[in-house]
Amino acid sequence: MRAKFVNEDFKDILKPKSLDDIKRDHQTLIFWKRIIDGARSPKSIKYFLDKEFIKDKAKERGLNQPIRKDWQKQLLYFLDIIDEEKEKKGDEITQELVRKVYSHTRDYGRNGINAPAAFYVDIKNYINNKYKEVNTKYKRYTGNELKEGLLGDYLWKDRQGESHFIEVYENPKSIKRLEPDVRGISDKEGNLYVLDHTGFIHERILDYVKSKKLMEDAGWDYDNHYYVNMIAWQRMRGTNDMYLGESYSENKDVIYLDWFKELVDKVRTKNPHINFIEESIYDARL
Questions:
Q1: Which helix (H) or strand (E) segment is 184 a member of?
Q2: I need a surface site. Which of 208, 216, 242, 252 has the fewest CB within 10 A?
Q3: pLDDT tens profile 249-279
Q4: CA 219/CA 230 separation, integer angstroms
């Protein structure tokens, strides 16, 4: 009886008839969940760092109080994203957010927001509750999380001082849409962490993962000249193949050590859709 109930309950949550509809609804919910969790992109940076832009945007939205706190800046970003999304083909989540905007502005003029703090909390609570509701039943039915392995965003500043936010994935379901030569690292449990940008060395990925209180015992062994408690990987030119990093070309014997073989077996088991090849990508390209 329980299995039948879960099955029916899951179908009730995911009303659309086709798999494409279900996938689109999941992507929409994940998109909004990332937004309210504070994920940033090159587009969103100005809402948090550009003082003149923030001032003008606050005036446009009728938020005349000084915009100093992050929640106020995030609210400005929410409002613009909702405006952009409502112009696209509607879905339940976006339409509900549009209704909430209307509810908080109808007694306060065309653009002004009535009780902005309450409105901010209302948006976050709606998305969080919706995500928890769907994710719980999705996980119960499929055994997987709805968030598709996204660990977070890596903040990087280029030589011109421009800030960029780059997605970091934990055990990505696929690497097909990622950049062609991305690097990744795997841990003792077989988890694979991939940063979706070609130009970053493995140390930067490790720094980010450690900032999440993960892989804290992993790193470079200066005596033996190889990584310990982890393996460094790199994708081969847009293929589904992940080779060992270039440093393994200088110390090839490590691949024969028992602990190394065990780590390779674990990452293959946890990420069976990716081909892990025990050869340095430097040697493979020769």
A1: strand 183-186
A2: 216
A3: 998 999 999 999 999 999 999 999 999 999 9
A4: 7
How far, rounded to the nearest angstrom, does the alpha carbon of residue 71 sit from its chain's CA centroid? 20
- Which DSSP string corresponds to 82-130? HHHHHTSS--HHHHHHHHHHHHHHTTS-SS--SSHHHHHHHHHHHHHHH
Q: Is residue 264 a contact partner of residue 272, using CB atoms and an 8 Å limit?
A: no
Classify 251 as helix, strand or coil: coil
User: Does an H or E element contain 154, and which?
Assistant: strand 150-157
Q: How far apart are CA 191 and CA 142, in angstroms?
A: 19
Of the pLDDT bands very low, low, confident and very high (cuts 50, 70, 90), residue 1 is very low
Phi–psi pair at 267, nearest 5 degrees: -70, -30
pLDDT of 2 over the 60 cut: no
Q: Provide the b/e sequence for 44-60 (b: ≥16 CB within 10 Å).
A: bbbbbeeeeebeebbee
> What's the sign of the alpha-carbon dihedral 178, 179, 180, 185?
negative
d(CA 233, CA 218): 14
CA distance 82 to 85: 5
More confident residue, 81 or 4: 81
- Domain borders along the chain are 2-142, 150-285
> For position 17, what pLDDT does the model report?
39
- What contacts 251, CB < 8 A, 6 or more positions away? 224, 225, 226
Q: What is the crossing angle of helices 116-142 and 92-105, to 10°? A: 160
What pLDDT band is residue 110 in, cutting at 50, 70 and 90? low
Can you name the residues that pair with 195 across neighbouring β-strands? 168, 183
Taking 80 as the threshold, does the pLDDT of residue 138 lie above it? no
- Please name the amino acid found at residue 124: K
